[in-house]
Amino acid sequence: MNEMTRTFGLELLEMILSTYPAVFFSHPEFVFLLKERVCALVIKLFSPNVKHQSRSSPAQQAASQDKPYYPVSLRLLRLVTVLVQKYYKILVTECEIFLSLLVKFLDPDRAVWQRCLALEALHKLLAQPNLLKSIVVSYDLKPHASPILQDTVNALSAFIQSVFVLPQVVSGTTATVAAGGSAQNPQVSSNATAGTVGLSGFYYRGVWIPLLTNLLTEPQRNTFLDGLDKSEPPGIPDCYGISVAYACLLSVLKSITVLIEEETEGDGDITSMDKEERKLKVQLINSSWCGLLNAISMLLEAR
What we know:
With 303 residues, the chain is mainly alpha-helical. The chain contains 13 helices and three strands. Helix 5 packs antiparallel against helix 6 and helix 8 crosses helix 13.
């Protein structure tokens, strides 16, 4: 073995960090390596300047142009989820950077697979109430830190709204135009939803976008995050992005509900809480209500 590829190196890092967190928490030397080497590498790989061509032949470079390298991005986001889930207590500043960069993967100018990959990673993180609590305490409640939960919910909201404005761009191909209408013509006939009876989904201005309900009810393999055997982004159905974003939205709502109900156990009176508990509860609402309202309003309009 003459050299280690970036993909193999990232897989080894993920395996070590996910298996032995106790070692890193117990030894300052390992914390130093984590901060100075691993986190520095992650931030470097997040850079938009890290492209496929840096490890490609001239012919591959010409073909890839400025496209991000999928195998590296996939393993990078897997590594980031491990770092945030297991090491946020000793990587507060670094995780703020990671989460901010992860949210930027949802920007409209990103490739479809990048946005879906980020959604899968966010879904894993947002489904953990205790992690969400730590995010709010470490960032949203701090005056000079990035409001991570607020930025995340707003980004999810913007993604969901963009699906209905430009469905073909977000999903990768085109959404289904219901019979009797079109995306440009919201005037549809009474049988406009023909062929969609019995299916869950959203209907907006003549466009029918199905919902993959199994993503909401069944733990399953992530199409992108678990695709270590693939060198190219897998093909996805038109509705995959909105389905994962919808699942993220539900995870945020469930996690916030769990945290608020935990804090109000006992007599259930907010006035009986101590100052810190009240601040946390208020911040959870302040950081999420605007983005949630915008996203849910759009979904209700398209129900």
